[in-house]
Amino acid sequence: MPGVETSNSGTILEPSDVLTNFRDDAFFATEQVQALDQKLTLITGIRADRSSANGDRNPRNVYPRVSGSYRFPDLGNAINEVKIRGGWARTGNRPRYADRDVVLNTGPTIAGIPTLVQAAVAGNATIKPETLNEIEAGSDVTFLNRRLQFEGTWYSRRITDLLLQPATIPSGGIANTIINGGELRNRGIEAALSAVAMQSHDLDVNVRATFTKNKQDIQKLPLSVPRFPAPGSFGAAFGRNFISPGGTTTWIWGNVPLDAQNRPLPIGSLVTNPGAVARIADTVAGDYNPDFIMGFSTSFRYKKLTVAMTLDWQQGGQVADMTRTLFDEGGTSRDYDAAITRNSMGPGWDLINIPPTYVNGSDTLAYTTGSYRYNAWAGGGDVRAYLESATNLTVRDISISYEAPERWLSYFRARSMRLTLQGRNLVKLTNYWSFDPQFNNFGATNLNRFIDLAPFPSNRQFYLSVDVGW
Predict the structure, then answer these.
(1) Segment holding 373, helix H or strand E
(2) 3-state SS, residue 308
(3) Separation of alpha carbons 364 and 124, rounded Å
(4) What is the domain count for the chain?
(5) Which residue ranges in the chain fall short of pLDDT 70?
(6) Which residues contact 61 (CB under 8 A, 6 or more apart)?
(7) Total-model pTM
(8) Does some domain include residue 158?
(9) CA-CA distances (angstroms) from residue 362 to 309, 328, 355, 358, 365?
(10) Which value, in Å, is the radius of gyration of the alpha carbons in the chain?
(11) Structural domain of residue 103, as residue ranges?
């Protein structure tokens, strides 16, 4: 069979059996110029790559870049210095291993021996890298005798020739093909504010805050490719991302009940008013992209003792809480028997027309928070029943360190000694029902990263270290 043969699903593997090697080479050049008493800085460069992962391995992909900045120094005591900066660059993302080839997978076992079959994803001999063009602009400003500094950046990225895997006809024996096409855009802002609140021989206090916000959408797809769901999800019952022209890559698509005018009905309508449901549509039900993310870090030093802390704050975004679905299904969620209130259900629910009871097998039971939530989901008929806010504030790190005094150093004949007690992932403040709204069942994926399914609680970690230098 033509193509690259791998046996990484065999019973006994040797290192040579798993073939995932790339062969890349590149030429690059860069030049920096400083002028006007080092106030003006210009940087330009170029890189020419080729890779064995590309369909055509001989041509080089050329990626230029240029950036510049200009400083306005010594402006006074209130505003000390202003720097404006900007840049443009092009780079690429090479195809994944075997995107260009026909590979073999393990098939059915016959007489106790695994067979080899063609992979479900067909390679493309003409595949090429994605191309990213980015432009950014920003400014850095220092204030109050350089005790306060602001950094702000706006950026816009445009990615073309996307590496897509649209679905094919299943009866053809191949589930997906790999093609280049379409365009994705990512725009956002980043800002940071740093302050030296106090500084003396015995006392230092430093504070830093960061802010990020962005939006990513699909500008277009090839005419031959209709919108398609991103691989790796549990379907419309729990939500998934779609690659859809004009839509964002973070929209959560799933089943939503609509009325006769194609308007979304309140959550719970499948229980409270089923006659108003004209149809159940696979449409946009939420968005896992946060409104913004902020980070806070501070350090406090008094003589030889230093205390440092890091906080993370995510505002907004939604998560599909499949963990709660499982607990509700078994009737064991901690709020299952609670009375139905706006507080227990959240926004968007119909709380007016709830029937007093429901039938479960041969039993007639009163509706509670958990039973209403689970029946409103209706086996996946309304994905919104288990979409929850991912807003959270996390104490990411706290450390206390102590620099040993001279008599300790003399005793150990050491040049330096520091004792540090550190705790990580200590506290998470959130209204999210499950353990952690930042957990994703599919790991560090680019898409479908909002699905929470029965995770272990996040570890709290504690470290005690002693650093000695001689």
Answers:
(1) helix 369-377
(2) strand
(3) 58
(4) 1
(5) 1-20
(6) 48, 49, 50, 54, 92, 128, 129, 131
(7) 0.85
(8) yes
(9) 56, 19, 18, 11, 10
(10) 28
(11) 15-226
